[in-house]
Amino acid sequence: MSTINTADHRAILDHTLQKDEARIMTSPNKLKIGVFGPNLSGGTGGLTTLEGPPVMGNWDEARGLAVAADKAGFEALVPITRWKGFNGKSGFWDRSLETFTWAAALAEATENIHIFTSCMVPMVHPVLAAKMGATIDHVAKGRWGLNVVSGWVMEEFRMFGLPEVGRDDRYAYAEEWIDVVTRLWTETEPFDFKGRFFDLEGLVSSPKPMTQPRPTIMNAGMSPAGQAFAMRNADMIFIQIHHDEAAKTIQDLRDAAAAKGREISIWATAHIVCKPTEREAFEYVVKYAEQNTDDTAGQGYAATLLGSDSTSHAKWRADPALVRSLAASGGNMPIVGTPETVVAELARLSELGLDGIALAWVDYDEGVQQFSEELQPLLKDLGLRS
Ligand SMILES: Cc1cc2nc3c(=O)[nH]c(=O)nc-3n(C[C@H](O)[C@H](O)[C@H](O)COP(=O)(O)O)c2cc1C
């Protein structure tokens, strides 16, 4: 059997970076900031037919947004992997840029920001994912990360002809999947892999990622199985939080990590509406989410949530005004107010132990600019960003 002399290749061709040296890990900012959903039409920013906000999902807009966030000092771009939208008037989620190829192109277009690929593991073979990830990590010079998504939208499983399986089996599959990927990234001798889901022979992958021993791994999921997966495999856990439960959710995760002797960064999502006065902020919510709701997309999104077993979305499923809530904040925790009150809430979350937050807005371009010009200086005054 022939072997690839990867170590020699690496010595000649590749620069390397230790995972703990990646800026997403070393950023001096106590509260790190990301953009959530910058790869699809509507982002996750509300389902509105209001004229004005850019639709995104078009390359120039997606690229422009990523470059602006990079220049503004954001730490991360976290895309959403989606295969179909809802055919509503707003186009919410109808166009989504594929998250590996999107990341590869942005790796060239940006300089400092960490670019994640959210990868729905049942749809991407681990040998292909390991190779694509390593390639993007080289283009990005160690600024690439993998967000492992086990999947929950069964309509999308059917698109791929995949069997519909329950959550625990999806995570069991993800566990084997990530084992294959990380071994391909770290082992220099060919190996075989035989598990419940994979029976693979003579596995090799070269080049290794630029980041050693492997790129940053994030996991988005909140069920016991999801959290156990994150504790075993991830550097960052990405969760949905709610104002009234944030303290407990964050503390429980900290305790679970401590029990495993692990340090794990905790990131969450939020949807920001920030106006000069509280009244203007709340009036704007009424305007885009109540008077100009995209009902078709709202009902489609609600039906998807109601038909799923995702723990991350459990609280949304119990919301009697689900369509309106989704229209108001796209399934993220809403933070509505003035620059001062929005920053006060971000500071509270940081105080509770949140390491990072990925943001969504109705208008992403305006949101990134406003964050940079109005919110960042206030966060700086509080010592949360430098
Ligand atoms: C912050 C966050 C981001 C997520 N991003 C995606 C995504 O991009 N695509 C997707 O299909 N699911 C996404 N999910 C869903 C989860 O990956 C997971 O499959 C689902 O929530 C079910 O797992 P759970 O029951 O452990 O929460 C996301 C979940 C969270 C909390």
Secondary structure: elements and pairs:
Elements: H1 6-13, E1 17-18, H2 23-26, E2 32-36, H3 59-71, E3 76-78, H4 99-109, E4 114-120, H5 126-139, E5 144-149, H6 154-159, H7 167-186, E6 191-194, E7 199-203, E8 211-212, E9 216-220, H8 224-233, E10 236-239, H9 246-259, E11 265-274, H10 278-291, H11 295-306, H12 314-317, H13 322-329, E12 333-337, H14 339-351, E13 356-360, H15 364-381
Parallel strand pairs: 1-8, 2-3, 2-13, 3-4, 4-5, 5-9, 9-10, 10-11, 11-12, 11-13
Antiparallel strand pairs: 6-7
The chain binds flavin mononucleotide (FMN).
Flavin mononucleotide (FMN) is lined by residues 80-81, 118, 120, 149-153, 167, 220-223, 226, 238-240, 269, 310-312.
Overview of this protein structure:
By secondary structure, the chain is an alpha/beta fold. It is built from 15 helices and 13 strands. It has helices spanning 6-13, 23-26, 59-71, 99-109, 126-139, 154-159, 167-186, 224-233, 246-259, 278-291, 295-306, 314-317, 322-329, 339-351, 364-381, and strands at residues 17-18, 32-36, 76-78, 114-120, 144-149, 191-194, 199-203, 211-212, 216-220, 236-239, 265-274, 333-337, 356-360. The longest helix is centred in the middle third of the chain and has 20 residues, at 167-186. It is globular and about 65 Å long. The model is unreliable at 1-5 (pLDDT under 50). The chain binds flavin mononucleotide.
> Could you give the order of the helices and strands?
HEHEHEHEHEHHEEEEHEHEHHHHEHEH
Strand content: 15-25%
Bound molecules: flavin mononucleotide
Mean pLDDT: 92
* Largest sheet report: 8 strands, parallel, barrel
Number of helices: 15
- Widest β-sheet, arrangement of strands: 2-3-4-5-9-10-11-13
Helix % is 40-55%
Cα-to-Cα separation, first versus last residue: 54 Å
Low-pLDDT sequence parts: 1-5
Number of strands: 13
Helix-and-strand structural type: alpha/beta
Q: Based on Cα principal axes, name the global outline.
A: globular
Alpha carbon gyration radius:
20 Å
